[in-house]
């Protein structure tokens, strides 16, 4: 396949905000005439991104899509192929983080997390593979996270969905290589987007009274997460640049880390440091170290009462 993106059709999910919106705008600015398919749940925001891209010279199709609904993911593929006749590059970017202690996250929220972060992207990928194969190749880029390589407290469900996406990507990479379809994963770290605020809202919906839970100390610290990570957070445009590297590389790598010190962090925590030390680091970072003391204090107070 040609490595010039100007003539190609690129489908981006989660394109209304954050990384997806930034990627669409950067592609439109750099590759005049590129054909973009932008999908997201929020039609009004999607239209604004599309208009920006059209003004830069891109040919844009928008499709309002909830990736949590498999039938909508398949419909997105069908509408794209009906309109453009092909997809050269699929960017599975849509996703969110269901945060909260695993003990407390409702099963319905668990199902929704996997529906959006795994099953929707899989259904869309399955629907587009045959036409990529028939045309002689293509690229699939799955946007994961450092949380897809490292699990941490309060974010276990999000990590589980991203671990699964990484495994799916590895299998696809091997299965589709004979058809010249290349599969890569991009792993952002902290990014200056609405991700943390959306995650906070998901916690509130799933755990309506955090103060009444044994994890209240950790959940309180979760509200400070954006301040903790802001110094090292990348912009959406920086992550978009890494995705474009995966899109244009003659021999794309299986994984691209998009985080300051990300490779070093992965090396230390997966290869060098003992498990107990890694556990202590994440427990302190996410406030789990405060839970035992807070719980003991509450129990004593209840006993005295």
Helix content: 40-55%
Give a short account of the largest sheet: 7 strands, parallel
Radius of gyration: 20 Å
Write the H/E string, N to C: EHEHEHEHEHEHHHHEHHH
Number of strands: 7
Query: Could you report the average pLDDT, rounded to the nearest whole number?
Result: 92
**What count of helical segments does DSSP give?**
12
Name the features.
single chain, 305 residues, alpha/beta, 7-stranded parallel sheet, 7 strands, 13% strand
What can you tell me about this protein's structure?
- By secondary structure, this protein is α/β, with parallel strands linked by helices.
- Helix content is 54%, strand content 13%.
- Strands 3-2-1-4-5-6-7 form a 7-stranded parallel sheet, sandwiched between helices.
- Helix 1 packs parallel to helix 2 (43-55) and helix 1 (18-30) crosses helix 9 (236-248).
- The termini are far apart.
State the gist of this model.
This protein is an alpha/beta fold and 305 residues long.
Q: How is this fold's topology laid out?
A:
Layout: E1 9-13, H1 18-30, E2 35-40, H2 43-55, E3 59-64, H3 70-84, E4 89-92, H4 107-135, E5 138-143, H5 156-176, E6 181-188, H6 195-206, H7 216-222, H8 225-229, H9 236-248, E7 255-258, H10 262-272, H11 275-285, H12 291-304
Parallel strand pairs: 1-2, 1-4, 2-3, 4-5, 5-6, 6-7
Helix pairs in contact: 1-2, 1-9, 3-4, 4-5
């Amino acid at each position: 396949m040609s490595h010039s993106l100007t003539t190609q059709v690129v489908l981006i999910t989660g394109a209304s905000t954050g990384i997806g919106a930034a990627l669409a705008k950067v592609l439109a600015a750099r590759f005049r005439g590129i054909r973009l398919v932008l999908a997201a749940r929020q039609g009004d925001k999607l239209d604004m991104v599309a208009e920006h891209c059209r003004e830069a010279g891109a040919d844009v199709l928008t499709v309002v899509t909830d990736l949590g609904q498999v039938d909508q993911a398949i419909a997105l593929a069908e509408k794209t192929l009906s309109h453009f006749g092909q997809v050269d590059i699929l960017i599975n970017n849509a996703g969110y983080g269901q945060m909260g202690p695993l003990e407390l996250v409702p099963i319905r929220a668990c199902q929704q997390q996997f529906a959006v972060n795994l099953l929707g992207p899989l259904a869309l990928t399955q629907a587009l593979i045959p036409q990529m194969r028939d045309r002689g190749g293509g690229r699939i880029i799955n946007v994961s996270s450092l949380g897809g390589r490292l699990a941490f407290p309060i974010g276990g469900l999000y990590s589980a969905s991203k671990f699964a996406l990484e495994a799916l990507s590895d299998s696809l990479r091997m299965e589709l290589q004979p058809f010249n379809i290349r599969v890569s994963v991009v792993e952002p770290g902290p990014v200056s987007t609405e991700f943390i605020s959306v995650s906070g809202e998901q916690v509130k919906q799933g755990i309506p009274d955090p103060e009444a839970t044994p994890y209240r100390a950790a959940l309180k610290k979760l509200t400070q997460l954006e301040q903790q990570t802001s110094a090292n957070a990348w912009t959406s445009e920086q992550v978009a640049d890494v995705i474009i590297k995966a899109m244009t590389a003659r021999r794309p790598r299986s994984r691209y880390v998009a985080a300051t010190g990300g490779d070093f962090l992965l090396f230390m925590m997966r290869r060098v440091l003992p498990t107990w030390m890694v556990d202590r680091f994440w427990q302190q970072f996410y406030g789990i170290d405060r839970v035992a003391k807070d719980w003991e204090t509450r129990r004593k107070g209840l006993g005295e009462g």
